[in-house]
Specification:
A: mainly alpha; B: alpha/beta; FAD/NAD(P)-binding domain; 8-stranded mixed beta sheet; 4-stranded mixed beta sheet; 14 helices
């Protein structure tokens, strides 16, 4: 059963799901962005932590189909698989410029959100006294934000609606949160750790 | 406006630096109040429910909203500075609650850098620094003077490590472990460091293959149940992986909140007022008399009078509060700001798994062979175009959760789609991304002032940061990129990549300088005890005091200087009427 949506309209959900699947495609072995519930996780974020970005999404999803129609004569979800990939190559880049090779490392916990000229999710330049409401320059900038939010939905705890049944973590061989790691686990080098995958709910 | 009862000591911001001095003065019978603009969280707030990479590492839940504490930044003085995010928590305990825990003493030479560099390299080789506006000064105190206070910090707050140098004897406890370059310590650490994990072993292999001297970094994280000299007991680390950017679930990671505040509160002389935002310091005839602060819950403004005022907030906020109060130190307040920028170097392996998510960030081997002037002989051989001074610590962090690691991708791998996913399915448990902690220098053009365009929601101008990467940082970055790459290649990495160009930012958690101590009042803000020349009953704490930076994390030195300043008050080494009358 599908979860309910509190922000996306019925027409918007398939667009978000298509983008999520393009960014993290599923196959026989591993889950993709659509089945992982990424659209739900973004919907919940836009209904809460990222509420100030609602207008960005409402407009941005319109831009997606405008551009798809301009370039291919149909909405994104009606394009064939090759056309969808080509569309995203045009607007999301392939690969990104080398500057983004900078690892988040530990320089800044928010380094990954520092996208020049864009509002930060959950507050940003717009929040400063005298600032402006959030706005995004164009479709390409919007899709960069969508990409970050898709990755959040995939990689975050399933409590946020994505990473359904911890499937993305299972595919990565990531064990999730643990209070204790043993020395034997930490010295394991011949395989990924073979321990049960936990979420916050399991602690 | 409500007038609060007078206190002996008013702490403006209960960050890391505030911990030692408020505890020591409360123990000695002083009445102390800490005004902290953030909330008062406790360890109960950091249970497994906070093992949440989205909320903490990614969204920075502990960090203030930009509407509350803001910064603006420009790297080019011709530009208009733009708002940027603050990455240090506003809370009781400050960033010491969510820090990584690396705990270092500075080198002896860090305390007299100007003299060291002039003697080693001579004016001609250093001319490029002069051209770039470097203003390097010796500290007004020596390592020898501070050593007993480092010792005190390590035993009261709890630091684990292998000694590299006890009274001149190198690696006296374990010939394979400890930083052989460290400054001589009087005695051993109170406990050992965190154990090694697969990432550490891999880094160590690479370093040893190159003939370098790797060691496990010292950390202010208990590796055994430890009771400090005040009788405060805290447990051992459980090797959970929610450390840097998180509060510690079991108090094993030291912070001013859990390692110092309980002792201060026990005296009955310490009061903490959270949600109390200091707006300005009121001063008359060269003496501070009170502070005005807002109760952020009720919106009421209060005035808190006191005898001694201690700047215990973060660098930007300390500078901003002073400037907004009209205290400029003859133009010195805000000058010589420093923070780090440098290369990034990452790798993946195809012959092993590292499982780097399954442990705290500072379970970490590292090396100092390229730090400070430890490799001076090699640097002397460099051409004029490549020559640089100082260096960097290089280490191997863990705590690589998916949402904290997703940017560690080689430049030619797409950021989405099948190839992106395949990269992660193959390499999530096989990546290393190094910490390269470059030492920056103080420059005339790197400073903090009040922004002319932006105010916060209380109407106070925000701190504006000016900072550039100069020739020394750029050359060092090229060199360190090469050295770090060599280490990972020697360790057997299948692919090494990165970026050799430093990218300056407003803030990176080692934001220092701005209120530097010195011997000459015309070139510094405080004397050797952190006492302001201009207003002698204001004492300064935190990274802003540092005249130079070092290639090591600053927190241990910040805590140590707070003990040093506390002792100056208790032993009457300073005169609160006259900052020049110290002994």
């Amino acid at each position: 059963m599908r979860a309910g949506y509190s922000f996306f309209s019925p027409g918007e959900v398939p667009i978000v799901e298509a983008l999520a699947e393009l960014i993290w495609p599923g196959d026989d072995e591993t889950i993709g962005g659509r089945d992982a519930g990424v659209a739900v996780s973004i919907d919940r974020a836009l209904s809460g932590a990222y509420m100030d970005m609602q207008p960005v999404y409402r407009l941005g999803l319109e831009w997606v189909d405008q551009a798809a129609n301009d370039e291919y004569g149909a909405n994104l979800v009606d394009l064939d698989a090759e056309q969808q990939v080509a569309f995203l190559e045009t607007h999301l880049g392939m690969p990104e410029p080398a500057a983004s090779a900078t690892p988040a490392a530990e320089a800044s916990p928010v380094a990954s959100l520092e996208v020049e000229g864009m509002p930060l999710p959950g507050g940003g330049a717009n929040m400063l006294a005298g600032g402006d409401p959030p706005e995004v320059a164009d479709l390409d900038a919007f899709l960069q934000i969508v990409r970050t939010h898709v990755i959040e939905g995939l990689f975050a705890d399933p409590v946020y609606g994505g990473n359904r049944d911890k499937r993305v973590w299972a595919d990565l061989h990531y064990g999730g949160p643990y209070y204790v790691h043993t020395e034997e686990q930490q010295l394991t080098m011949d395989s990924p750790l073979d321990i049960p995958i936990q979420s916050i709910a399991d602690l | 406006m409500a007038q609060q009862p007078r206190k002996d000591v008013v702490i403006i911001g209960y960050g890391a630096a505030a911990g030692p001095i408020s505890t020591e003065l409360a123990k000695a019978g002083y009445s102390v109040v800490a005004l902290e603009r953030g909330e008062w969280r406790t360890t109960d707030d950091f249970s497994g429910r906070t093992f949440d990479t989205l909320r903490f590492a990614h969204r920075g839940e502990l960090l203030p909203k930009q509407s509350e504490v803001a910064l603006t930044f420009r790297s080019d003085l011709e530009d208009v500075a733009r708002p940027t995010q603050y990455i240090m928590a506003n809370m009781v305990g400050g960033a010491s609650v969510h820090w990584s825990g690396q705990s270092w003493r500075y080198y002896e030479e860090d305390f007299h850098l100007r003299t060291t560099l002039e003697e080693m390299y001579g004016a001609e080789r250093l001319a490029y620094l002069e051209e770039d506006g470097a203003n390097i000064q010796d500290w007004p105190l020596t390592y020898e003077e501070l050593e007993p206070y480092y010792d005190k910090m390590e035993y009261y707050i709890g630091v684990g490590g292998f000694p590299g140098n006890i009274q001149g004897e190198i690696r006296p406890v374990n010939p394979e472990e400890g930083n052989p370059f460290e400054a001589p310590r009087e005695r051993d650490f109170p406990m050992r460091p965190l154990r090694d994990n697969a990432t550490d072993i891999t880094f160590r292999e690479g370093a040893l293959a190159l003939g370098l001297n790797p060691f496990h970094v010292p950390t202010a994280i208990n590796t055994e149940a430890y009771t400090n000299p005040d009788g405060l007991e805290r447990p051992a680390c459980s090797y959970c992986a929610f450390c840097t950017d998180y509060g510690c679930w079991n108090d094993s990671k030291a912070s001013s909140l859990v390692a110092l505040l309980p002792t201060a509160l026990e005296t009955g002389n310490m009061e903490v007022r959270p949600n109390s935002h200091v707006l300005r310091i009121n001063h008359e005839n060269g003496r501070a008399v009170s502070v005005d602060y807002l109760d952020l819950i009720t919106g009421e403004q209060h005035t808190q009078p006191g005898d001694i005022f201690y700047m215990g907030a973060y660098t930007f906020q300390n500078v901003r509060t002073l400037l907004h109060s009209g205290i400029t130190g003859g133009g010195q307040v805000g000058k010589y700001f420093m923070n780090r920028s440098g290369p990034s170097v990452s790798a993946y392996f195809d012959d092993r798994y590292l499982n780097g998510w399954a442990g705290p960030a500072v379970q970490r081997q590292g090396l100092d062979d390229y730090n400070g002037e430890n490799n001076a002989e090699e640097k002397m051989q460099l051409s004029d175009e490549d020559f640089f001074v100082r260096g960097a610590f290089i280490g191997s962090p863990s705590q690589r959760h998916p949402l904290e690691a997703y940017n560690i991708v080689p430049p030619d791998v797409p950021r989405w789609g099948r190839a992106f996913k395949d990269y992660w399915l193959e390499n999530f448990n096989r990546i290393i991304s190094l910490q390269i902690l470059q030492e920056p220098l103080p420059y005339e053009t790197s400073y903090i002032d009040l922004d002319p365009n932006y105010v916060d929601q209380y109407g106070v101008p925000v701190a504006r940061v000016q900072r550039q990467a100069k020739q020394n940082e750029i050359r060092m970055s090229r060199y360190m990129f090469q050295k770090a790459t060599e280490i990972l290649e020697a360790a057997g990495a299948a692919r090494v990549w990165g970026n050799s160009t430093p990218r300056p930012t407003a803030t990176m958690t080692h934001d220092t300088g701005g209120l530097r101590m010195g011997s000459d009042p015309s070139m510094s803000v405080t004397n050797k005890y952190g006492q302001m020349w201009e207003i002698p009953n204001i004492l300064v704490g935190g990274g802003a005091l540092l005249p130079t930076m070092s290639g090591h994390n600053p927190t241990e030195t910040i805590w140590t200087l707070s003990y040093w300043t506390a002792d100056a008050v208790l032993e009457n080494k300073i005169d609160l009427e006259d900052a020049q009358a110290f002994t």
